[in-house]
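Researcher: I'm preparing a figure for a lab meeting and need a structural model of a single chain. I don't have an experimental structure, so a prediction will have to do for now. The sequence is pasted below. Please return the structure as tokens so I can convert it later.
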Amino acid sequence: MASATLRRRLHHGDVDGRKYERYDAATDSDTLSEPLLGSSSSSNNDSKAVYNEERTLEDIWEEERKKQQSHWTLIFSQLIAQWAQWIAKVVFGSGSLFGRFLSLPHIGSGGRLLPPPLSLLQEERLRNIKRRIEIPFDGSRMEHQDALRQLWRLAYPQRELPPLKSELWKEMGWQGTDPSTDFRGGGYVSLENLIFFAKTYPESFQRLLHKQDGTRAEWEYPFAVAGINISFMLAQMLDLQSGKPSTVAGIRFLEFLEEDEMAFDNLYCIAFQMMDAQWLAKRASYMEFNEVLKSTRTQLERELALDDVSSIRDLPAFNLLYKK
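Model: Understood. Here is the structure written out token by token.
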């Protein structure tokens, strides 16, 4: 009985990772290279040993089955995750309503908004505009002098270019004979803004320069100096002096930078046209310019906060640039 039991036990050869030598039935006194799971002293004990061994095999198969199940579960989980990512791109993309909601800024400490992460392109363009607004106007630099001359040629293409110090500059809306004294806080970027306006939207530029729209005041705002003030107002409104814009208008401007490298200059043109419309609506005069500029900022901030605005062209006031 004991010998038959041992043969059955050793028939498996490899149990639980351990190798067993084949048993020779002719010599019961021979020993195994490694002990079995039970004692061979009695048939009862041999039966217990066979039962324990069979339990071990079942455990091994069960363990292997669980491993296979876990493996396939992992594969299906990965597939589901990939499908979920694909669906998210379609449904929650940056252009969708959900995508716009998910990309909204969060409220940080002190009530400041935390802008969403910026792309490398947005970071680069933000650095560029911040660098531009930090450059002061320097009348001794040839580059800045040439920019003033370019502005004159764009404003008055049929007229002769005057010296950099001349009474003729007052016709453009400079306060004195030397335009370089009017820049102050506006910096060189305000001259760049005027040049961009004249080149990109020439009809709108000429209408404002020559005050062609509406019934004008007897004491009008000076065109060029008003442009400098608008540049300064815009930089403040968009929070460009801080490390990263954290106002509603500033964060919306960051979104514009993704698609429009000249977003600041385009907003400048819209703000200028918007300011003139406010001027006419209020029937304002020279002494009320600051009040009109404040109203312009409020209106522009309101439009930048609209939910359906995702580009410069979505702003309601953008149409003012093409008014006939």
